[in-house]
Amino acid sequence: MSFSTLFTLVLGCTLVSEGRAEVYLTQEQALKIAFPKAEEIETVTLSLDRELKIRIEKRAQTPVRFSEIPVYIGRTQGQPIGYAMIHDVKGKARPITYMVVINPQGRAARVEILAYRESHGYEVRYPSFLKQFFGKSLADPIRNHQDILNISGATISCRAIADGVRLLLGVWEEFYGKEVVP
Fold first, then answer.
1. Which member of 58, 110, 146, 170 lies 3.0 to 4.6 Å from 141 by CB, making a disulfide possible if both were Cys?
2. Distance between CA atoms of 122 and 157, rounded to whole angstroms?
3. In terms of DSSP bridges, do strands 79-90 and 108-116 run parallel, antiparallel, or are they unpaired?
């Protein structure tokens, strides 16, 4: 076996064992998908103090591990057409970057995976999994084996995404829920 063949094998095994980062969408691409008809996208950074984190954790039933998060508000004729948040959740060992788009009525309009860094479970980026979140609000369980079908071999990633969607819906409700248009 030649040195170059051995090097290639070792490198390949290293990449597989450490997982490979796959970037599917940049932030700019994701926001174009989120708001294809927006005339403008405003960025607002939300700050969460301890009290706010506790309220969001109660709403979303998942821990809040950040103190600030940017919200991208798509607008047409000055009116919000949706809110997008991009966030990282922890998979088995590495972060999964995802985006939740929330309509003005407080329901998930779209969920996208921007980057996946785990060695297994990448199937969570498939539309068949992500479309399960469409129309969900915090009035729904948004949990594996309840209203979200799990993917065999990707249980931790499925749970992480479901927890993340609930978390961002909780953030949205705390800041914008009082402005809901029926």
1. 146
2. 8
3. unpaired
In the chain, the amino acid numbered 6 is L
Based on C-alpha coordinates, what's the Rg of the chain? 18
The CA distances from residue 113 to 76, 93, 144, 154, in Å, are 25, 17, 17, 14
Predicted confidence (pLDDT) per residue in 139-180, tens digit = 999 999 999 999 999 999 999 999 999 999 999 999 999 766
Torsion angles phi and psi, residue 137, rounded to 5: -130, 180
CA atoms within 13 A on the CB side of 104: 12
* CB neighbour list of residue 131: distance below 8 Å, 6 or more residues apart: none
The two tokens of residue 94 are 């590495």
Buried b (16+ CB within 10 A) or exposed e, 94-118: ebbbbbbbbbbebbbbbbbbbbbbb
DSSP string over 3-40: HHHHHHHHHHHHHHHH---EE---HHHHHHHH-TT-SE
Structure tokens that stand for 146 in this block: 């309840």
What global pTM score does this model have? Answer: 0.87
Locate 161 and state its tokens. Answer: 């995404």
